[in-house]
Write a structure and sequence with these properties.
Low-confidence stretches: none
Number of domains: 1
Protein name: DsrE family protein
InterPro entries: DsrEFH-like (IPR027396)
Number of strands: 5
Number of helices: 4
Shape: globular
CATH architecture: 3-Layer(aba) Sandwich
Strand content: 15-25%
CATH class: Alpha Beta
Structural class: alpha/beta
Helix content: 25-40%
CATH superfamily: DsrEFH-like
Order of helices and strands: EHEHEHEHE
Mean pLDDT: 94
CATH topology: Hypothetical Protein Ychn, Chain: A
């Protein structure tokens, strides 16, 4: 199976587009793919509890949510304010994931 790295930079501020993108991630995970949803820039606000309800569904379906530490810090969002089960990561982690041969990346 192909691994997917889906990168969300807009977050809930983009309206239904963010939820549709998270829905795509959920469907991929449901089909048996390993999916990481990386939240960066304003996308990190989707990791706030209740901000993007699809995130919880995605996590329950086996997906991983990564949150960019720099973007979160720039928005004064400490890890303790974010939903349970999200992982704070550095860009080195994202770069390593992108270099894995089986990974397909999509930026939204």
């Amino acid at each position: 199976m192909t691994d997917h790295l889906l990168i969300e930079s807009g977050g809930p501020q983009t309206g239904p587009a963010c939820e549709r993108f998270v829905g795509d991630a959920t469907r991929l995970a449901g089909d048996g793919h390993r999916v990481v949803l990386f939240l960066v820039e304003n996308g990190v606000t989707a990791a706030l509890p209740g901000a993007a309800p699809g995130i919880e569904t995605f996590l329950r379906g086996g997906g991983e949510v990564w949150v960019d530490t720099f973007s979160a810090a720039q928005r004064a969002l400490p890890a303790t304010d974010l939903a349970a089960d999200v992982r704070m990561v550095e860009m080195d982690d994202v770069a390593a994931k992108l270099l894995e041969p089986q990974v397909r990346a999509v930026w939204h």
